[in-house]
Amino acid sequence: MTKTIDGKAVAKKVNDATQVAVSELVAQGIQPGIVVIIVGEDPASKIYVRNKNRKAEKLGMHSVVRQLPDTTTQAELLAIIEAYNADDSIHGILVQSPLPKQINEPLVTMAIDPHKDVDGFHPAYVGKLVTNYPGHYPVANTPRGIMTMLKEYGVDPAGKTAVVIGRSTIVGKPMAALLTNANATVTIAHSRTKDLKAVAKTADILVVATGIAHLITGDDIKPGATVIDVGMDRDEHGKLVGDVDFESAQGVAGLITPVPGGVGPMTIATLMQTTVELAKWSDKRE
Ligand code: NAP
User: Fold this and answer.
1) Share of the chain above pLDDT 70, in %
2) What is the pLDDT of residue 286?
3) How far apart, in whole angstroms, are the C-alpha atoms of residue 98 and residue 173?
4) What is the pLDDT of residues 210-239, one digit of tens each?
5) Cα–Cα dist 105/173, whole Å
6) 150 and 96, same domain (yes or no)
7) Among 230, 243, 266, 270, residue to substitute to test ligand 1 (most atoms within 8 Å of Cβ)
8) DSSP assignment string, 175-244
9) Distance 84 CA to ligand 1 centre (A)
10) 108 in the same domain as 46
11) Domain, as residue range, for 227
12) Which residues are marked as active site?
């Protein structure tokens, strides 16, 4: 029997703790603040950003959405980031992907004050993640949220075989690092992987983050595996679906996240959690 992982319920638990942490900080005179910068008119990005803004406000945080035209130049964007770097009411800066082609993403990553890097994209943080460095630092929110979900459902990666399909900086690579740090034996697969389906079927924990609707079906899943579907895709009818065919996974997977209602709410909850942590750490900077 396949059990559905309730991402909304786990996200609520994280959000409840965040709300308490926000109240404690506000009592000390610090209101955690986040700015999400969106360049251009990508409809999916606009929906994510609206959801992030609503959640931040609901949790009592200071939330700014900075919508910029798709003609924004590199210099203009860097100047805006610089202004938020200097703004004490902002603890987390997120620049929403995708960015228009005139913008150099690595330069944007490097322009954000690392103390406000809510995605944990700065190479120093990536280095800490890969070396399993002790202490507090931000880690990409989607994979971090997935680790919280696994823990909540009693899935300990230690000794398990994990396969991560997708090698992006925002999901696949940090996911593989977190699973490695949690003592799983990890394979990263991608568009050049040979016999992807056979590789997927070796996984006790299968994380799929490709953006290809229904890439993985029940036949590709090891019986009893935990399946985490990161994809947010549209099927031929325009319906939101994942990278995994949820229906054919029934009766094969042990645990599976639905789309929607799985990884999505956890990403937003973890983003808020990280922003509050950055606010907490802001008076303890080294
Ligand atoms: P991305 O940057 O486009 O990366 C996609 C990855 O999938 C790449 O590594 C690519 O391989 C691999 N891939 C593409 N086609 C493949 C195929 N046919 N077989 C095997 N691997 C293939 O995407 P992303 O930002 O990681 O996002 C992935 C998906 O997750 C998207 O649907 C996105 O909307 C969703 N997402 C959801 C959340 C959430 O909160 N729910 C958060 C972030 C992303 P190559 O490297 O070889 O090109």
Assistant:
1) 99
2) 43
3) 18
4) 999 999 999 999 999 999 999 999 999 999
5) 17
6) no
7) 230
8) HHHHHHHTT-EEEEE-TT-TTHHHHHTT-SEEEE-SS-TT-B-GGGS-TT-EEEE---EE-TTS-EE-SB
9) 29
10) yes
11) 141-264
12) 52, 96, 119
